[in-house]
Write a structure and sequence with these properties.
The complex is a heterodimer of chains A (308) and B (374). The radius of gyration of chain A is 20 Å and the shape is globular. The longest helix of chain A has 34 residues. The mean pLDDT of chain A is 91. Chain A is mainly α. Chain A is built from eleven helices and four strands; from the N terminus they run H-H-H-H-E-E-E-H-H-H-H-E-H-H-H. Chain B has a seven-stranded mixed sheet with strand order 7-6-8-9-10-13-14, covered by helices on one side. About 3% of the residues of chain B have low confidence. Classes of the chains: A mainly alpha (308), B alpha/beta (374). Chains A and B meet through helix 1 and helix 10 of A and helix 7, helix 8 and helix 9 of B.
C-alpha cells in the first residue's frame, strides 16, 4: 500500500480520536440547550474539573500501590463522574435555578460568572501551572511494511473510541428507554406542557446538567490520560470546540452532537494534514459557517417550529 | 437604611484613601523596583527563575545596607505572558510611581509594555525577552541582560547545518513574537547553508493535539525538527511523536529548556537539543552566589536566574554611582559604564542590547539534566 493511502488512514485515526473527545463534551451543550434553550458557558470548566479529578484520583491510586490498569481506569472514571456530576448539579442549582423565568440574558451572564469562578477556584486549589502525568497505557499496533510508513494505532486511541461508544450507547438507551429519559424528551419538546402534565421539570433540568457533566468527566479523564498534560485553562478551548461541534451537528440534537464532534475532529485533522496546521481552526470554523449558511439548524437539527 | 449604607461606604472610602496616602509616605524611604513576569499561567516556571534571581539580588544588596542608605523594595507583578495583561501591568507600574522595571519575560508582552515605559520615562531591563525588535524601537531606557534571537538563531542554525546536516528538515513555531521570530532566524541561517526546509508551519499556543502534524512530518520523511516556542507545546509534540514512532531529532531555543519538558514528555525528551545561555552556575566566580541560592532551596541553574540577578544589580550599582534615582540619569550612566555581574562583565550598546552574550548548544536528558554538546 502506498504511503499516501497509509498516511490518509493515519489521519482518519487521528481525527476520530480527537472527534470522540469533542463529541463527549458537545453532548453537555446540546442537552442543556435542548431543554432550556440556553448555552451553558460553564460546561468547558466542568470538563476541566473532570480532568483534574481524574488525574488526582489516578495519582492517589498509584501512591496506594494499585497495579491493575483496568481497575485503576474504572475507579478513576467512576470517581471522576461522581464528583464532576456533583459540580454540574451545583452549577445548575446556583447559576440557573434561581434565575428561572428571568430574561434570557441573566442566566447567560451568571453562567459566564460561574465559569470564571470555577477556573480561578481550580487555579487556587491546584496551582495555575501545568500538571503532567506519564502514560498509564503505552504501546499499540503497527500496520504497514517494515522500514516504510507505518500506520500506528495506539491502545489509548482504541480505548478512547471504545469508551466513547459505550457511553454514547448508554446515554442513547437511557434517553430512549427510561422513564426519566422520556421526561427529558417531553421537556425538550415543550417544557411548559410537560410541566402541566405533571413532569417535575426542575428535576429534568438538573438531570441534563448531571448527564452532561458525567460525559464531560469521561472526556476529561481520557484527555488527561491521552495527552498527559492539563492546566486550569483547558476548559476554554475545549469548550469552544465542543460548542462548535454541537452547533455543527444541530444544537439540541444528541446524535447531532456526536456527528458534529466526529466531523470537526476529522476536519481539523485533514486541514492540518493537507493544508497547514496554522489554518486548521480557520477551516473548521469556515466549515461551520458554510453548514449554517445552507442548513441553519445544523447537520441533524430539526427546524424550529414556532410554538403558538 | 440607604443612608446608613452610604455613610458606611464613605467611611470605608476615606479609610482606604488614608491608607493609600500612608502607603505612599512610607514608600519614600525605599527604592521600588517592579519585577514583572508570569507568576501564573503555562510558562510561570520562567517567571520564577527571573524572580528568584532578582529577589536574591535585592536581598543581598539590602543586607549590605541598601543603596545610598535606602533599601530596595521588590514589587512583584504578574503579566501571565499575555500582551493585554502586560499593558495593564505596565500602567499599574506607572500609577504606583515606580521608576525601575526588571522584566517582562515573554517577548510578546515585553514589546507593548516597553512602549508605555518609554512614554513615561521608566527604565526597563528585561532579563529574558530575546526578540530583536524590542531594542530596535529607538527607546533610550530599554535594556536587556540576555542575548537576542539574531544571536541565538544563527548559533542553532549553524549547528544544524554544520553538525547535523539533515536531509529533510521541518521548522515549527507557535506564531508568537518570540517563537516565530527565532524560527524565521533559524530558517534563514540553514537555508543560507543549503539545507532543505520542507515544512515551515505555525501551531496554536495551547494546542494539545499534534497527531495530524506529526503524521504529516512522518510521511514527508522529516529527519530533523526545529521548534520555536515554549516547552508546554514542544513537550506534547515530543510525546506524541514518540508514540507514533516518528523518530526525528528535535531542537529548540531556551524557551523549551526547562525541567517541565521532561515532566510532560518523559523519556521522549532524551536527546533534545537546546540553545541556552552558558551555565553561569559553573563559573567559579559565582560559587558563593550559587551556595546562597542552594541554602534557600532555590535552583540557580535556570537560564533567567542570573540575568535577573544582574538586572537588579546593574540598577542598584548605577543608582549608587550617580546618586540619583531619576531613571533618565541612571539610563544615561548605564550606557557609559561596564559592570561585573554573575553573567560576566557587562556593557551595553546604544540600542540597550548587551555588547556580548553567548549561547551554547546543550543536549537535554530524560532525567531533566543537560550537558553541553562538545
Amino acid at each position: 500500500m502506498s504511503t499516501t493511502f497509509l498516511g490518509f488512514i493515519q489521519q482518519v485515526i487521528n481525527g476520530l480520536t480527537l472527534g470522540s473527545i469533542y463529541a463527549l463534551i458537545a453532548i453537555g451543550y446540546t442537552m442543556v440547550y435542548g431543554i432550556i434553550g440556553m448555552i451553558n458557558f460553564a460546561h468547558g470548566e466542568i470538563y476541566m474539573i473532570g480532568s483534574y479529578v481524574g488525574v488526582l484520583v489516578l495519582t492517589a491510586l498509584t501512591l496506594l500501590g494499585l497495579q491493575s490498569v483496568p481497575l485503576m481506569l474504572l475507579l478513576t472514571l467512576v470517581v471522576s463522574i461522581l464528583v464532576t456530576s456533583a459540580y454540574g448539579w451545583t452549577v445548575e442549582r446556583l447559576a440557573y435555578r434561581p434565575l428561572r423565568g428571568s430574561p434570557r440574558l441573566a442566566p447567560l451572564i451568571s453562567a459566564i460568572g460561574m465559569s470564571i469562578f470555577l477556573q480561578n477556584y481550580v487555579m487556587l486549589g491546584q496551582g495555575a501551572r501545568d500538571i503532567s502525568m506519564q502514560p498509564l497505557i503505552a504501546g499499540g499496533w503497527r500496520f504497514g511494511a517494515e522500514g516504510g510508513f507505518q500506520v500506528y494505532l495506539s491502545y489509548m486511541q482504541v480505548l478512547i473510541a471504545v469508551v466513547t461508544v459505550i457511553f454514547m450507547a448508554l446515554l442513547t438507551l437511557y434517553i430512549s428507554r427510561s422513564r426519566m429519559g422520556r421526561a427529558c424528551r417531553a421537556c425538550a419538546e415543550d417544557r411548559e406542557m410537560a410541566n402541566l402534565l405533571g413532569i417535575d421539570t426542575d428535576r429534568v433540568i438538573s438531570l441534563t446538567f448531571v448527564l452532561g457533566a458525567a460525559l464531560a468527566a469521561v472526556a476529561g479523564v481520557l484527555v488527561g490520560l491521552y495527552y498527559g498534560k492539563i492546566n486550569p485553562f483547558i476548559g476554554f478551548v475545549a469548550g469552544i470546540k465542543a460548542f462548535t461541534a454541537a452547533v455543527l451537528g444541530g444544537i439540541g440534537s444528541i446524535p447531532g452532537a456526536m456527528l458534529g464532534g466526529i466531523v470537526l475532529g476529522l476536519t481539523e485533522s485533514f486541514a492540518s494534514a493537507y493544508l497547514s496546521t496554522q489554518y486548521k481552526d480557520v477551516v473548521a470554523f469556515g466549515l461551520l459557517v458554510l453548514v449554517l449558511l445552507f442548513r441553519p439548524t445544523g447537520l441533524l437539527g430539526k427546524p424550529d417550529v414556532e410554538k403558538v | 437604611m440607604k443612608h446608613v449604607i452610604r455613610n458606611r461606604l464613605l467611611t470605608a472610602l476615606v479609610g482606604a484613601l488614608a491608607l493609600a496616602i500612608g502607603g505612599m509616605a512610607q514608600a519614600e524611604d525605599t527604592i521600588k523596583i517592579a519585577i514583572v513576569g508570569p507568576i501564573t499561567g503555562p510558562v510561570a516556571q520562567y517567571g520564577e527563575m527571573q524572580m528568584n534571581g532578582a529577589k536574591m539580588a535585592v536581598e543581598q544588596i539590602n543586607a549590605k545596607g541598601g543603596v545610598n542608605g535606602k533599601k530596595l523594595e521588590a514589587v512583584l507583578m504578574d503579566d501571565v505572558c499575555e500582551p493585554k495583561q502586560a499593558v495593564a501591568v505596565a500602567n499599574k507600574v506607572v500609577n504606583e510611581g515606580i521608576g525601575f522595571v526588571v522584566g517582562h519575560l515573554c517577548s510578546g508582552s515585553t514589546q507593548p509594555a516597553s512602549k508605555i515605559y518609554d512614554e513615561e520615562g521608566i527604565l526597563m531591563i528585561t532579563p529574558a525577552a530575546t526578540n530583536p525588535d524590542i531594542t530596535k524601537q529607538g527607546y533610550k531606557q530599554v535594556f536587556r541582560t540576555i542575548g537576542t534571537d539574531d544571536q541565538q538563531g544563527p548559533v542553532a542554525g549553524n549547528f544544524i547545518a554544520d553538525r547535523i546536516k539533515p536531509k529533510q528538515m521541518a521548522i515549527l513555531h507557535d506564531k508568537q513574537q518570540y517563537g516565530q521570530g527565532i524560527a524565521s532566524e533559524v530558517k534563514r541561517t540553514v537555508e543560507g547553508k543549503g539545507i532543505k526546509v520542507v515544512l515551515f508551519e505555525g501551531i496554536n499556543k495551547g494546542q494539545t493535539d499534534f497527531s495530524a502534524l506529526i503524521t504529516k512530518m512522518k510521511k514527508e520523511g522529516v529527519d530533523f525538527v526545529y521548534y520555536g516556542g515554549y516547552h508546554p507545546e514542544l513537550g506534547l509534540i515530543l510525546r506524541q511523536a514518540r508514540e507514533q514512532g516518528f523518530d526525528a531529532r528535535f531542537m529548540g531555543p531556551e524557551g523549551v529548556g526547562n525541567k517541565d519538558i521532561t515532566a510532560i514528555a518523559g523519556p521522549a525528551s532524551e536527546g533534545l537539543l537546546v540553545t541556552l545561555p552558558a551555565d553561569f552556575t559553573q563559573d567559579p566566580a559565582n560559587a558563593a552566589l550559587v551556595k546562597a541560592f542552594k541554602d534557600k532551596n532555590l535552583d540557580p541553574s535556570g537560564p533567567f536566574v542570573m540575568p535577573g540577578y544582574a538586572a537588579v544589580q546593574i540598577i542598584a550599582d548605577t543608582i549608587a554611582k550617580t546618586g540619583s534615582t531619576d531613571p533618565k540619569a541612571v539610563a544615561e550612566a548605564m550606557h557609559q559604564s561596564s559592570y561585573k555581574t554573575p553573567i560576566g562583565t557587562v556593557a551595553f550598546k546604544d540600542s540597550g542590547d548587551l555588547k556580548e552574550f553567548q549561547f551554547i548548544v546543550f543536549t537535554w536528558h530524560a532525567d531533566a539534566t543537560k550537558t553541553p554538546v562538545q
